[in-house]
Design brief:
Elements lengths: L2 E5 L1 H13 L2 H13 L9 E2 L8 E4 L5 E8 L7 E7 L8 H10 L1
Parallel strand pairs: 1-5
Antiparallel strand pairs: 2-3, 3-4, 4-5
Length: 105
């Protein structure tokens, strides 16, 4: 049985931007993984914490992450529902500090 993958409006916009920037294929590959088994490893996923507790992320590239949650299915033909909240900008503003912060200090 498969999972029902649903994209939130911001995730749809993100996918369009990823298509334009050349990362659409990678994003679509990850969406296929989510349809088959959202907690399958590999590709690696990360459990999020804090205000994003209960959600997971998967790497699209060094900057962008696909952020989603897995819920029980409302439709008996699916094993569960996957809601994709965002597909880019998850770490914007943090990347420079991670990569360049130690070089400055």
């Amino acid at each position: 049985m498969a999972y029902d993958v649903r994209l939130a409006p911001p995730a749809i916009e993100d996918l369009c931007e990823l298509e334009r920037s050349g990362y659409g294929r990678k994003a679509r590959e990850l969406l296929t993984v989510l349809e088959e088994e959202p907690l399958r490893n590999p590709p690696k996923y990360k459990k999020l914490s804090g205000d994003m507790k209960g959600k997971f992320s998967r790497r699209i590239n060094a900057e962008h992450r696909l952020v989603y949650e897995v819920l029980p299915s409302k439709d008996e033909k699916y094993e569960g529902e996957v809601r994709v909240h965002r597909m880019r900008t998850h770490y914007i503003g943090i990347i420079p500090a991670i990569f360049f912060g130690s070089l400055i200090f």
